[in-house]
Amino acid sequence: MKKKNSFFLIDDDLDDQEVFEMALQRIDSNYSLSVAHDGVEGLQKLTSDDFVPDFIFLDINMPRMDGMQCLPELRKLKHLRQSRIIMYSTTNDDRVREASQQLGADEFMVKPSRLNLLVSQLTRIIEKH
Q1: Which of these, 34, 30, 38, lies nearest to 20 by C-alpha position?
Q2: Which DSSP letter does residue 78 get?
Q3: Taking the CB of residue 102, how many other CB atoms lie within 10 A of it?
């Protein structure tokens, strides 16, 4: 039996959350998705040792605590060492991409404008894992 992939999306945009879930459904119905609306809520959920998602998708621009503030805090959590953290943003700025890698992101993914592009990008990330 195929392993069930678990995803955690930290993103304040409800439309982006919905599109992300639709893309996962197109890839495989055998997944779990949890969502947080900002970095503070994301950290609260992830500090529990029994919650270890395979993939954490972290938006950059959010209220209270943005992705660049949240990322180093996530990397301090030992139980998340095997989780892949993907910065997930509308920006395509090389400086932001570089900064996120220096803070410990495994990948940087620009939010695509079309659902089928998101499906193919997520498929690539899942297959690499």
Answers
A1: 34
A2: G
A3: 10
129 vs 112: CA distance, rounded Å: 21
Q: How far apart are CA 54 and CA 35, in angstroms?
A: 14
Q: What is the pLDDT of residues 78-93, one digit of tens each?
A: 999 999 999 999 988 8
d(CA 74, CA 42): 9
Q: Measured in whole angstroms, how far is the alpha carbon of residue 56 from the centre of its chain?
A: 3
Distance CA 25, CA 17 (A): 12
What is the rounded CA–CA span in Å between residue 25 and residue 21? 6
Q: Which residues make beta-bridge pairs with 88?
A: 109
Collapsing DSSP to helix, strand or coil, 125 comes out as: helix
**DSSP class of 79:** G
Does pTM surpass 0.85?
yes
Q: How far apart are CA 9 and CA 41, in angstroms?
A: 11
Euclidean distance between CA atoms 80 and 89, whole angstroms = 21
Task: Give the pLDDT confidence of 2-18 residue by residue, as tens digits.
Answer: 567 899 999 999 999 99
